[in-house]
Specification:
By secondary structure, the chain is α+β, with helices and mostly antiparallel strands. The protein contains 4 helices and 9 strands, in the order αββαββββαββαβ. It has 2 domains: 31 residues; 155 residues, no CATH class. It is flat and about 80 Å long. About 8% of the residues have low confidence.
């Protein structure tokens, strides 16, 4: 290709770049916003136990709601891990706690069902069913017992959609899709000595 033609092709490419950036930003603005936000996370220490309270705001993407209405069940998991800090080795796990909720839609009764620990309950709307999962108060992590040591401790908390519980073909088709990546994580210090 002669030099003048290469120059014209280069100028045409430069002229199209702002347009490509504008199209990409317009797509990003029009894409549905999927969000999960940790609004509150507190650890309370009493003489009886160490307990956790949290509140998460979840906005489900439209295609996930459609999949639920077509019979797909999804699982949300809340995990709380308490660690003791150690300078000489990896941090020592003290407590590992987990709660799992299975959310499904029952088309015959037009109710939403939430299963937790083998117990299930029906709700009239998706909002009510999600409200059960999105907050917890006084979740006991450490039961009464000997007083903990005075070393530093910290808590790692996560709340997420468990993709491993989805049907395998759906897991493969999602690939790197960010629409279904619903997760929040937080780490905070925990004063165990009183």
């Amino acid at each position: 290709m002669p030099a003048p033609e290469r120059r014209r092709a280069f100028i045409a490419l430069l002229a199209s770049l702002p347009l490509a950036g504008w199209v990409a930003s317009a797509r990003a603005q029009s894409a549905p916003r999927v969000s999960m936000e940790l609004q509150n996370l507190q650890v309370q220490r009493t003489d009886e136990a160490l307990s956790l309270s949290y509140q998460v705001r979840v906005d489900l993407p439209k295609d996930l709601e459609d999949a639920l209405l077509k019979g797909l069940s999804i699982v949300f998991v809340a995990r709380a891990n308490l660690y003791r800090s150690r300078w000489y080795w990896t941090d020592k796990p003290r407590v590992e706690a987990e709660r799992r909720w299975r959310l499904s839609y029952q088309p015959l009764t037009r109710h939403w069902r939430v299963n937790i620990d083998g117990l299930s309950r029906s709700y009239d709307s998706l909002r009510e069913a999600m409200g059960v999962m999105q907050r917890a108060g006084q979740w006991r992590l450490i039961e009464p017992g000997p007083p903990p040591d005075d070393r530093e401790h910290y808590l790692e908390f996560s709340f997420e959609l468990d993709k491993d519980e989805l049907p395998r073909p759906l897991q493969l088709s999602l690939g790197g899709s960010s629409d279904w990546n619903l997760a929040v994580q937080r780490r905070l210090p925990v004063p165990l000595n009183r």
